[in-house]
């Protein structure tokens, strides 16, 4: 190493720190900027109804992104979440005759089965996550349509309506559900052996095997969790809309969820899971959409701006590498 | 991850001849496995076509229906050719479905200004977006998955923007020369079939007989090793993604010419079909090896299945997706099994 290079090293370290700081906190800065902008320029943004609406709308993506964060933490990916939403939604509508509790459980069970299939293929057979979950993305949506016979079913059920649209102390129940999920996942990641296993596998799969981490079992659990959370999101969405439409529910949500996770600072290369960042990432994407729409930007512009924001966020993150 | 357990730890044999015999058997098996992996899709295709011909008779095995299958395959085929190179090179391109839609819209939009604009505009724009993919992935070292995911969004937004949020559907006037690209035919073959055939032939030559193909394969095998060998990795990867964008653009142009219109909502999920076709064709998603013939077989297989389910059979069309998904996983499982054989 030359002297000049050595002299430059501290500077490089400084820059590294700046990058790290942006990666760590960038999503919060972005969220804050967006909030200030909206409070200043968007009429009626600060009203309680609007704030409530934003929170309610972000719930499905947020719940799925939490599961996705775990999956990405293990250096994996789950493309099947949208189809799992469709399956659970279709099952819910089909089994509503047995009462809402049974129907919800069947919906969640459907998700768990997809998760087990994903997990077995990935952890025990050794298929790449992107291929295994791609197969279930394609096949799962078809299965949902078969279950629902391709029809939109209207869902009238008092319990589901309460779940979908009631509030407790002004906070919508669906938001409370999402918060509960977030707390559980956060505790699991930060305080349990399972959480340490997840991060270890993502950090270095080979080393985790050597270190005695039960890699296969952990991966299976992670994919099952992700799928069950996706099923929960499907049930919530169905309850909110009072309808189950398997050809539309959850379309492309895997992309939104992955974006939220990555923008929130979880590297695609795995090895760490950022729960708060993921939630902030989901909210950021939700607010970007809401802001552009409330300022009368058309859907097309919203998509293009979102794309540029994703690229920007990942460009900053690229220092950390990724698959 | 999976190799830790279940591998033989040591070979307790001092007899050289015995070892040699084991090695020979292994290499025979390896060659066989390689052939099955590369030719597997082709074999399955032949079997499925034969079965469908026997079961459904002339409803399936008529010249008209087979030509329909070929035509339907030509659009996905062009996209899958580009995808084959990207995947062999160790990457992935999710933007192709949106690019196809964007290209179709731009073709129809541009056809107001004459056939030259109708051809050059979509190809140039899609080529440019593909190039941007390549630059961001190869030079800025961003993850292919995320970059092309963002361009998936961007291109679809662009297509909506051009078509007034999807409310305007531009039509290609009947007299426009572009129409010939989609609806003209040479002998019994429509032009898209011929273009796709030429694309596959060229791609096969490139992948198996050219330096470019060898270099892309090397990059997919090990990017670091390719760099150490002195290959211009970044430039090659850029070319890879740019050509994938160009081919998606070409496919969109043909779709617009075939249907005389450009709709911004087509091609959703096409990237997944293309990936599925490539994977079914025996190209490993890990990169470093692949086959254009296999991709062709994969594309035809998907379309034959669609055709059987849609036009001939009595199954509901929703089963189409289920069957495609099951097919994908079965093929990957077989590949996985063979790859394990190869390693032992």
Structure commentary:
The complex is a heterodimer of chains A (323) and B (344). Chain A has a single domain (48-317), classed as Orthogonal Bundle (ABC transporter involved in vitamin B12 uptake, BtuC). Chain A is 76% helix and 2% strand. Chain A has helices at 3-41, 48-73, 81-94, 100-125, 129-147, 158-165, 173-191, 193-203, 205-210, 215-241, 253-263, 275-294, 299-317, and strands spanning 153-154, 167-168, 171-172, 243-244. The longest helix of chain A is centred in the N-terminal third of the chain and has 39 residues, at 3-41. Chain A is globular and about 65 Å long. Chain B is mainly alpha-helical and 344 residues long. Chain B is 73% helix and 2% strand. A two-stranded antiparallel sheet of chain B has the order 1-4. In chain B, strand 2 and strand 3 form a beta hairpin. In chain B, helix 1 runs antiparallel to helix 13, helix 3 packs across helix 10 (233-259) and helix 11 runs parallel beside helix 13. The two termini of chain B are 16 Å apart. The chains are: A mainly alpha (323), B mainly alpha (344). At the A-B interface, helix 4, helix 5, helix 9, helix 11 and helix 13 of A face helix 5, helix 11 and helix 13 of B.
How many domains is the backbone of chain A divided into?
Answer: 1
Main β-sheet, spatial strand arrangement of chain A: 1-4
Structural class of chain A: mainly alpha
Q: Give the CA-based shape of chain A.
A: globular
Provide the residue-averaged pLDDT of chain B. Answer: 86
- Counted up, domains of chain B total 1
